[in-house]
DNA sequence: CTTCGAGTAGTCAAGTTTGATTAGTGGGGA
DNA sequence: TCCCCACTAATCAAACTTGACTACTCGAAG
């Protein structure tokens, strides 16, 4: 599962109709370039690719109103919306140790109903626990946990991450169950995109360690 | 930093001289295809690329002894060893939320001295703490942590992961300080590669959630 | 009035990743 | 003996990612 597709579909969907630069700006607003591979090239590539696959509909539009080359506007199709929700549900459920996928899902979770998000997150906890069980038993089949030398630290790390992820997910479940946030069908949603011409307060926001490389 | 380079350099180095399939098998033995992008294509690509860049020396070798196309054997060069240690040190120090990098570093940490590993891990803890500080202050500049709506959960997740990572690293430091494992210059090292003809007990080992996709 | 910088919008070549496919060898069963 | 399968070993096209680059407009400073 490529996180860029979820991100781009979600951004286009929130706008109703959006051109590449708008999507690019939203992702920057969300800090997505910090915690995922949301480079301009990847975004435009994803837009074109998904337009080719019928997930988005491309409108060729006249030269831009504000400088630069003519821009193409995209609208999400029914097939695209379907794919969006599929990816979103998967991102909240699956435990695959890629933190960017969960981050993206978190940003869009309010597009689902409160009840469904709770169900998906509970499923996530179960998935983590199952995975933990499998790893711990598979890697100590003979019963001697010391046989792996320092390689055992790998398993240790995975298990620790899994436990920490499960604990965090349980905390989130509690907060949502306690009435936090506004979900689909519960009234005025939290606006997470930039309007046309609205400035981006986080354009040069948090420095992320990955930037140092 | 691409984890595949560290993994391939480390595997070739442990063998002294290795062909692609051997490297591929080691990575599978380590479960690397589970927690990193260690697909065959990536491995062969990395070998060729690094040979072109002078990090590995390629020996054209006669048709394989056991079926299949003729195989090329690789040996690590001085430049390659230098790069290997650079990547290894970086993988243990840097906090970039990509768990595969740390996993790889962990697998090879015993190629360094106990004192150096301790120093690198302490640096890692400091890096995590610094990052945490930056994120928490940057994302609550006005002082109102509730202004972000559900997007605040993103920060929450990052901070939780950072704390959990720091805690785990401290535990590892304690274990190493307590005398665990055998490091460079401390006698017979733990053998982490498959010998020629040795069977791979984990060839179809742990099922990882990522497999489900 | 022209030059510079900042912002807008997107393209492109180079490199990397994916995983299906190719291709040779040896062994077991009909 | 012959065919099929499993294993060994590597290649390849297609897709994806990177981030530098192009190209255009507007406003302000010189």
Summarize the structure.
The structure is a homodimer of 213-residue chains. Chain A has helices at 3-15, 20-29, 32-35, 40-52, 78-93, 99-108, 114-138, 152-177, and strands spanning 17-19, 56-60, 72-76.
Unreliable segments of chain A (pLDDT under 50, ≥5 consecutive)?
201-213
Rg from alpha-carbon coordinates of chain A: 20 Å
Helix-strand topology string of chain A: HEHHHEEHHHH
Oligomeric state of the chains in view: homodimer
CATH architecture of one domain in chain A: Orthogonal Bundle
Let me know the number of strands of chain A. 3
Q: How much is the average pLDDT of chain A? A: 85
Strand order of the largest sheet of chain A: 1-3-2
Q: What separation lies between the terminal Cα atoms of chain A? A: 25 Å
Task: Name the largest protein-protein interface in this structure.
Answer: A-B, 49 and 49 residues
Instruction: Outline the biggest β-sheet of chain A.
Output: 3 strands, antiparallel
| CATH top level label of one domain in chain A | Mainly Alpha
Proportion of strand residues of chain A:
5-15%
Measured as a percent range, the helix fraction of chain A is 40-55%
**SS element count, helices of chain A:** 8
> Looking at CATH, which topology of one domain in chain A would you report?
Arc Repressor Mutant, subunit A
SS-derived structural category of chain A? mainly alpha
CATH superfamily of one domain in chain A: Winged helix-like DNA-binding domain superfamily/Winged helix DNA-binding domain
Overall geometric form of chain A: globular
